[in-house]
Batch of 2 targets.
Target 1
Amino acid sequence: MIGTRDMKQAFLNINSIVLVVAIVGLVIAFSSLSRYFLTWTNLRVIIETMSILTILSLGVHALLVAGEIDISFTSVLGLSAAVAALASPANAFLLILYALAAAVGAGLINGFLVVKMGIPSFLVTLATMTGIDGVVLLASNYRSVLLQDRLLPKIFFGRFFWNIPMSVFWMIGLIILGGVILRFVRFGRWVYATGGSRKAAELMGIPTKRVRYTLFVASSFLAGIAGLIVASRSLSARPLIGEAYLMPAIAAPILGGALLTGGRGSVVRTTLGCLVLTIITNGTNLLGLEPAYQNIFMAIILIGSLSTQGGRESVRRLIQTITRKQSGS
Amino acid sequence: METTQGRAGSATEDRSASVVLECRNIVKDYGRIRALDGVSFGLRKGEILGLIGDNGAGKSTLVKIIRGALKATAGQLLVDGKRARFRSPRDAIRAGIQCVYQESALVEQLSVRENFFLGQEVLHSGIVGALGFVNSRRMHAESHAYLERMGFDLDVREEIGSFSGGQRQAVSVMRALYFNPKILLLDEPLTALSEKAKDRLEEFLIEVRDVCPMILVTHDFKGAVDVCDRMIVLKHGRVSGEINLRTTDLSKDEVFDYLFVHM
């Protein structure tokens, strides 16, 4: 029975356990400290806030699995929002097209520099992040630009069902799409293989360059969608608006067990990681703590997560060995 | 090039055997350095051909050309008598050339079954398959059944990283054989193995040579003599010697001497 065994292994994954325990612990802690925490309004705020972070994290996660990193998504988010706002008023679908084309363009540049030129992805995306920020600042004249369209905000942040914004449904759709591609589609296997051992993948005929190129474009595309959501939410595009997402969007997949060396990661656990980080931000807001504390918590979580990766790997292997012995193989 | 043949006149017999892979005057230049200088040889059905040579002899370059990772500067590669032009390792795999490497070409984080079909995943039929959906159930069943049939009882759901070097290399060889290759290219497959694992794998290769002809690339010529039917020696990018081990009159020590002198 493949399914049962796989489900059991997924459930027993140490990273999943840590995340679920963290979520339960945080919910208990914040609900006992603030009576507003477990209200429908606040839960809706959590899921709304989480949607943008999760969409960004999906791209970061896929690249981490493939052994690469993209930190330019914050700027691409700002670029997409700025393009849509600057091009408005115009047909909403044209605005979306322009914004996403700009995002994809950034992804193509990242992909070209990393894959074709062989420059490390961290340095490339650091440079493109800075460059794109500069372009956005100049184009918007250092000011917020109003989004002059009625349809676009409805597509990305309209509240049609239970007062939940469309961004949440975009997030759910993209989680399913990303999860299915990485787990059930051949391309997904190639992503894990590329990150696990690029050399082995190449020897077996996997087009690792194409895989990495595609992921840089996909990551920027997701940042482009996030940018449209942000612009739709605030009905404007503010330069450098994406900066706040840099740390949590990278921390979430790592919290979910993605390795910086590649080959490991899970869309579900990345989503749980986003939930943990959003709960922390939301809870500390409710308690009236200064935003500086959120930064400190975020840094502690990221460092804690990175420093315990080795230990979590060992525990994961131990659990695997025990389940193998139990099943008699 | 010097060759040695047996008294039985098996040269005629061997030539009549059909050649599966032929390298004709393969030349490879890296800038001004000539790594291969007119290498020619053929691999016949039912044989294990040893390709030996010291470091820098051109073995790796030749292997890369055969498996489609490098383009030859000049010369031809023929598979079943037809000219083959490989632009990537994928083309070589499609032409029926499977490879086993020293480092196994396995991804530690993936399961045995995922590694078994790495780069050659089984897709669903119909539109689902056209969308790239892999048939995990079939991959599981087929890899498990094949390994079991070949005498390797492994849990194919486990990560390959949790198995020993010998087991991993076994998976690597089984994986290559599973796809019914025309030619199996073994690039230093025994180097990282323990003596026990090496013996077992050598026995296995001898058993399956009739099913699939092989080129065994190695610098360990003493070990290769027990496995190969024929050996060619590469030196400074050229074939410097050839010996048919099935028919030679030379003693084992004389064969070693012959190979050593020509390396």
Target 2
Amino acid sequence: MQVKNLISTLWRSKLILSLVVLFFAASLISPVDSDGSRIFLESGNLLNILRQVSITGILAVGMTLVILTGGIDLAVGSVMAFGATLCAMLLTLDESHNGLWVSGLGLGTVAALLISAMIMAALYPKRTSIDSKRPSLGLTITIPSILIIVCVSAAVYYFFQQQNNAPIVIILLSVISSCALLGGVSGLLVSKGKLQAFIATLAMMVATLGLARLMAGQDQSVFPIYSGINVSESFDVLRQPVWGIPVPGLIFLSVVVIFSIFLNRLRLGRYIYAVGGNERAAFLSGIPVDRVKIWVYALSGALSGLAGILYCAQYQQGKPDAGAGMELDAIAAVVIGGANLMGGKGSITGTLIGVLIFGVLSNILQLNNVDSNTQLVLKGLIIVVAVLVQQFDWQKLITIFDTMKKSKD
Amino acid sequence: MSVIRCLKPAFLLLIFISLNATAAEYRIGFSQVTTTEPWRVLFNKQLRKAVKQHDNVELYIADGQDRTEKQVADVRVFIQQKVDAILIAPKESAGLVSVVSEAMDAGIPVIVLDRKISGDNYTQFIGGDNLAIGRQAGQAALKLLGGKGHAKGNIVEIWGGMGSTPAHERHQGFAEALASEAGVKWVVERQDGDWKQDRAYDIMSTALRANKKIDLVYAHNDPMAFGAALAARDAKRFKDTYFLGVDAIPKEGGLWVKRGFLTATFVYPTPGVKALEQVLKLLNGEQISKTISLPTQTIDKDSVDLYLKNHK
């Protein structure tokens, strides 16, 4: 009986275990400092790992939400790069004005959505979730929404143009809302347009890259940021350590905490699991499947925008091509974290571990100065091993132990 | 302004359609592999600027969008339009050979820029010499680390793409120059920064943890050297290290040398201006040589002011 318990505990915590095993292996093979300490285990190095994974990690959290509904979001890398470009452009406004419209539109649309949601709540106060046919909103909502979008866009445009140093909070908000908007478009395509998530987000990935390049303009492929020179130094806060922990890492950890609470405690979070587990059943039990999906993609977009801001702060530049390949890193981390690409299964904690496994692995390989090409091979291997470990039938092992025990008796 | 930019593709299309109707003396088609890298942007900008000084020349730039098949199509369009000369900055050496031959057969001279194509059925090749750049960087490193025979120090080398020829040549030249120095030690080598600032930042931040002493960083382009410098600055170890980059794009490497982020950078020259000069020579009936290798130039804090002034 004890063996059985042990195995099932192992089974449940196998993810953490694989991280722990990797961690020990890494400390064993870590190069040793001149004063005899293991470099891998130094707090500076561990915090460095946290910082290095934070951007991919934030993308992976958004990706987890999408994958939980049975979809996939290939656009996260592009949207992140879009956000980074927009952020750099808005920060260095005196050098360019192309980002204004985009940010105005982003903030404007989000404001309009919020206000029309309020109007809706006021007009139709007690809508039960059973009547899945919603009252037709028609012109009552559409026209005011468009008016609000135009007004807020114009206001933001005017505001940015008046002030050379717009408050950074407003810049960050408009970056995040523009990216959320892009995510929302993916969500609309998937839910209302009935496109397959792979196709819809592939289209968004390509289109967003193009959009970012158009926004950047032909003669500008990179927007550099020099804090204290063309950008106010307060933007540097996003790069520096607070209480010894790098801010990107702190933000990543808070995103992890917030979204695991969101997934486990909030209604929308539970709906996400329901939609991914069995979409038809979820629909029949009155869950607004389409709205859940739009939310999920919009959240993924917003998180990509946040990652874009951190990218901009960390690497002191924004460029349209920054996110190439990042969506795949994010997907890999989510899959290592135990999520099922068919949806319904997975967790933010799992994703956190997946992200850390990747981070620790590439850190220890680099500390030992392992050839980059070998690193790629080992990373591929880790993905396969991690998924194999999860697919391994541990229940079978338990029954084998049981029968062995019985035959002894 | 943004509206105008959005309409640009449409304008370009119109220009393309009316291409045959325009009446400049010389019409030159240029197939550029991509227009999104800073170096390519500079390349196009300098070429356009040079063309502006000649009233009798009209230049059409086609963006290959980093795809060989798009470049093949672009060159075919130029052949159809019977341009007077074709410039091509190819994506790769093999895939463009046949279309270049088609152009040559149609009697249109083709000047290959920056990257070579296989065989020798083209009019001229103009490009920078990455091996020489690597050597010059190696010489500079030698000087910074104490001179020939006495050089001492730990070197971090951050590669461009591991699978790319320029990266291998920039490495080879550098390694050759430092080969006989016993005091020089590579503490980080064969780490692929993929030409990217962010990747180099992460490589350097880890290298700084693994090594108490890093004397010199050599990165295969400026953004990577700058990324490494940022990582060192964030780790409060910027002052201990020399940073060498390659390319010297005025807005990037040039500026970074001026602001003290980089110790030196080495010009990887854009071949556009030279190409125009050679095309005009050719069209005026002069002979031109088969290969032109563009010289590099060291940009450090002594030469940067003049360099930036000349390349505004």
